[in-house]
Specification:
11 helices, 12% strand, TIM Barrel, single chain, 5-stranded parallel sheet, alpha/beta, 11 strands
Length: 325
């Protein structure tokens, strides 16, 4: 089994909805995480937004790690704060629309601009990608493939990650990933829920459903966020993502163990770059929280290494999968 570490590398506290005002101070906190990965021989894939691609500190840091073969740089579009501008809501900076809400020609141009920036700044071809706010569709997939991308990791099987919580409804249908494949598959050009002939490999996010099927169906059928929140208060979360939150070390180890027992090819860890900076995110609010995060990562990485889990970036794992088919 391989460990894929995916870091959504984006501006400070993107949850705040400040758009262009988001800084990139969190980049200064990534070297500590990179050193931890290096101690265990693991390699992050930094899925990078436009503003982070323009941050000189992050570029210098990442180019050095790239030169040592210790990471990968991929793309992570946040369409509301990168060119070209093309408003699709009353306030894109605050409402943060999904890329799939834009006209196809604008989607293509935003991807082209981000790809060109990252390729130039890091002097590498872009191969890996995750959609901003997880929202992905077939048009998007075809555009990525046409631009040379070979990996996407936007799908969250068993779970409906893309739920519109804005006061302005989405202009397009949002994806529901609950019945999507749980393992890697090359995407179909017209239906991303099934295998097909695109050279773009989908590597779904690793998560574990905690409810049974009837309870899960009831949870998603409940109207409104308040009722769902009450159900979570009684039964807990409907699924565990392979994503540290300061309270789920045991769940992370249990999920890793289950994947090993299932002889899964990979387990995918996910965090945001801003989650390594205290107070720059809703989860890790102070230095004690950050130290707890690193303690959890240390235990998790040590467990994975002791159990023979190997390192790979997203594009490296794509090559492994392609070589076995």
């Amino acid at each position: 089994m391989h460990l894929l570490i995916t870091i959504d590398t984006e501006g400070d506290n993107a949850w705040a909805g400040r758009g262009y005002e988001n800084g990139t101070e969190n980049a200064r906190y990534l070297p500590r995480f990179q050193r931890l990965c290096g101690r265990f021989g693991f390699m992050p894939t930094y899925l990078t937004t436009y503003e982070m691609g323009r941050d000189d500190f992050f570029v210098e840091f990442a180019r050095d790690a790239l030169a040592r073969g210790e990471c990968e740089i991929g793309a992570h579009p946040h369409p509301w704060n990168q060119p070209p501008e093309c408003p699709v809501t009353s306030d894109d900076m605050r409402l943060q629309p999904y890329l799939i809400e834009y006209p196809p020609e604008v989607i293509a141009e935003k991807l082209r601009v981000l790809t060109a920036l990252l390729s130039e700044r890091f002097d590498v071809e872009m191969r890996s990608h995750r959609a901003g706010r997880w929202a992905f569709d077939a048009t998007y997939a075809r555009l990525l493939a046409s631009m040379g991308y070979t990996v996407d990791c936007s799908v969250t099987p068993h779970y409906r990650s893309v739920v519109d919580r804005r006061e302005e409804p989405s202009r397009v249908p949002l994806p529901d990933y609950r019945r999507f494949p749980t393992g890697p598959y090359f995407l179909d050009a017209t239906d991303i829920s099934r295998p097909g002939d695109l050279p773009l490999l989908e590597i779904p996010m690793t998560l574990m459903p905690l409810y049974g099927r009837p309870t899960t169906a009831l949870y998603w059928a409940l109207p409104g966020r308040r009722v769902k929140r009450l159900m979570r208060g009684v039964l807990g979360q409907p699924a565990v993502f392979f994503r540290p939150n300061g309270r789920n070390r045991a769940d992370l180890l249990r999920l890793a163990r289950r994947k090993l027992e299932q002889r899964a090819g990979y387990v995918m860890l996910m965090l945001h770059s801003s989650e390594f900076m205290a107070g720059c995110n809703p989860t890790f609010k102070n230095e004690r929280d950050i130290e707890g995060l690193y303690a959890d990562l240390e235990v998790l990485f040590d467990w994975l290494r002791q159990h023979g889990v190997e390192a790979a970036t997203c594009s490296q794992y794509r090559d492994i999968v392609a070589g076995t088919m």
